[in-house]
Amino acid sequence: MAIVDEIARSVRDRVLRSEAPDLAAVAPAIEATFDDLALQGTFHSDESVLRTELESKIFGFGQLQPFLTDPSVEELWINRPNQVYIARGGEVEVHEVQLDSETLRTLVLRMLRDTGRRVDSSLPFADAVLADGSRLHVVIPDVTAADWSVNIRRFPANILRVSDLVASDSLTDDQASFLSETVIGGSNLLISGATHTGKTTLLGALISELPNQTRLVSCEETFELRTTLTDWVPMQARQPNLEGRGEIPLRRLVKESLRMRPDRLVIGEVREAEALDLLIAMNSGVSGACTIHANSAQAALTKLCTLPLLAGPNISSQFVLNTVANAVNLIVHCEYLGGGRRRVSEIARVLPDTDGNPRVERVQF
Fold first, then answer.
1. Rounded-to-integer distance, Cα 230 and Cα 214, Å
2. Residues near 238 by Cβ (< 8 Å), separated by ≥ 6?
3. How far is the CA of 216 from the CAs of 49, 77, 183, 341, 358, in angstroms?
4. Rounded mean pLDDT of 142-160?
5. Which residues are 350's β-sheet partners?
6. 114 prior amide bond cis, ω within 30
7. What pLDDT, on the 0 to 100 scale, is given for residue 20?
8. Which ranges constitute the DSSP H helices of the chain?
9. Is the dihedral of CA 33, 38, 40, 45 positive or negative?
10. 3-state DSSP helix/strand/coil percent for the chain, to nearest 5?
């Protein structure tokens, strides 16, 4: 409505740039504008409807708000301010929007403000979780060529169970029964796959198969894991502050988690030396699970045998090979089939060969 746009413009700068841009901070300006419009006889509809729309415009995320509230949108990304890409049902759509660089920058900073994350010239990347559970990733110039790059990945409102994955053909009945039994039995799992193959969703579903009295401690770069367990301590790594202090890396979280009496330790994704800490925990009797980017179960095993070497020159490859062979029980590989469809394409046991090195043996169903 033109009235709403007029009021929004009158308070936009004050709201977007305020240190505390909530309704109370701009209420006087809003009320004064409404009073003026009422005196002029401008209203031609219910004032409460106007107020609701106005608050959505001012305190929401502007041109991005319709995409962020649409439950069918799986992911949103922006390469330049006037174009928004969305993924819906596995298909990509491009939408032209009325958005300039400064407004996009302001909206993203508002998203980040309540997450404890920041982005600036000294730290041009940011990973954060929004209030609705969506994951926000931002990259700014001069790492990008000219414009801010923004990705917002959304997650299902409901926590999916193994039965839901069977219903969506991501798992067969036999695979579901086998994985549920192995997880409940305490097996150590590695879930592999490319981006958007459903690794974290599968991990959360399998964890939710555990008895409710199971104590879970999870460590992630950014909160993504979801589960129905109640005795759960989720922990998130922290970036350094403006002075370069206060960083808490994933390795520190894994070490601290072992002092928290976990029945099950989960790392959202292993990318670097934290793989060593997870292996040591698994090898000391703590059941564990994690995800890893790889193209197959064999590639995931090879990668897991390599990442711990990043922990330092005093870590020998033979130690890592023996530890993996004795610690990891199962690799579950996920694939994206297109059109929004995902499936578990391979389940493999990890067994030691005659030299004590790990090998994969595919489970036949």
1. 8
2. 116, 246, 247, 248
3. 45, 33, 13, 29, 27
4. 89
5. 360
6. no
7. 42
8. 2-17, 23-39, 47-59, 65-69, 101-113, 162-167, 173-184, 199-207, 250-257, 274-283, 297-304, 317-327
9. positive
10. 35, 25, 40
Angle between helices 2-17 and 101-113 (to 10 degrees): 60
For 180, phi then psi, to 5°, come to: -60, -45
Q: What is the CA radius of gyration of the chain?
A: 24
The alpha carbon dihedral of 22, 26, 28, 33 has a sign of negative
- Using alpha carbons, select from 192, 193, 190, 230 the residue that is nearest to residue 210: 230
pLDDT in tens, 37-75: 565 555 445 556 565 555 555 556 878 888 988 888 989
C-alpha count within 13 angstroms, C-beta hemisphere, residue 141? 8
218: left (phi over 0), alpha (psi -120 to 50) or beta: beta
Paired tokens of 13: 């700068």
Task: Give the closest residue to 289 by CA, choosing from 318, 343, 327, 322.
Answer: 327
In single-letter form, the type of residue at position 227 comes to: T
Contacts of 252 (CB under 8 A, 6+ apart): 237
Please state, in angstroms and rounded to a whole number, the distance separating the CA atoms of residues 186 and 289: 10
- pLDDT greater than 90 at residue 12: no
Do you know the residue count of the chain? 365
- Residue 209 to residues 162, 182, 204, 214, 250: CA-CA distances in angstroms? 8, 10, 9, 10, 25
Helix (H/G/I), strand (E/B), else coil: 250: helix
Closest CA to 360 of 288, 282, 291, 298: 298
